[in-house]
Amino acid sequence: MAISNALAPIEVDKGSFPRVAVAFGGGGARGLAHIHIIEALDELGIRPVAISGSSIGAIMGAGWAAGMSGAEIRDYTVATLGNRNEVVSRIWKMRPMTMKDAMNGGFRFGQFNLERILKGFLPEAIPDDFSELQIPLHITATDYYGQRGVLIDEGDLYTAIAASAALPAVFRPVSLNDRYMIDGGIYNPVPYECLMDKADVVIAIDVIGGPEGDGETMPNRIDSLFGASQLMMQSIIEAKMQFSRPHLMLKPDVHRFRVLDFLRVNEVLEASAGVKDQLKTDLDALLAFREKA
Hints:
Layout lengths: L19 E5 L9 H10 L6 E5 L1 H10 L4 H12 L2 H10 L1 H7 L12 H8 L15 E7 L4 E5 L4 H9 L8 E3 L2 E4 L18 E5 L15 H21 L6 E3 L14 H7 L2 H19 L1
Parallel strand pairs: 1-2, 1-7, 2-3, 7-8
Antiparallel strand pairs: 3-4, 3-6, 5-6
């Protein structure tokens, strides 16, 4: 999508501007595109009244709710994930916990303790508890044995984020309130409905993507696993949209990236850059329509 970067800024009257809430969807490394949304709203001077997030959306939402700007989140993310040596260094510093405490029985795929990893990689600006956030945050997780989605908005923030981002087959489930939680995207990939009664404009960001290929090459085992998950989550969103729609739904161009492509942070940001101007254009059109109506 080719969109000019020279859009005229929306004139924001803080006294009359509608309340905005933002729902950040899950999608692993594809969710790095959420940074553009935060930057765009920062540039417009719009501070959301509420934020919701699933998986990577919960991580990005937590940074914004903690008071970080989009530019700060970008700089931290690029400096951390965009530097392979930095990633290795942080993992090395975590080695006593990761080797002894965070894993059961050694290096076993699917048994990584995500809460430990988040403590080692997330910025210090993110507090330990929901009560310390500057903007209300709602995080989704999936109760594995309860077979339902749960919404978390209080208590230990890192545990909630880990529960929301505990991708099956990669990270072990997270114990929360004596229940075992897995990735919130399994049950609610883009949790916008919890914001509909909290704001005048709800913006939802879908970074799930879908399987890509030439249609002739058989997907391998890992691609099939994650691709099937993408298809399932897209069907959930489609079903939700039949009953309730956010005011704006944006889908950054991140289809070609895999869920664990975090080291490709610069490529993800470059590929999805157009969503920033798309948000400004769509928001301007929505407000103009409302004014005429």
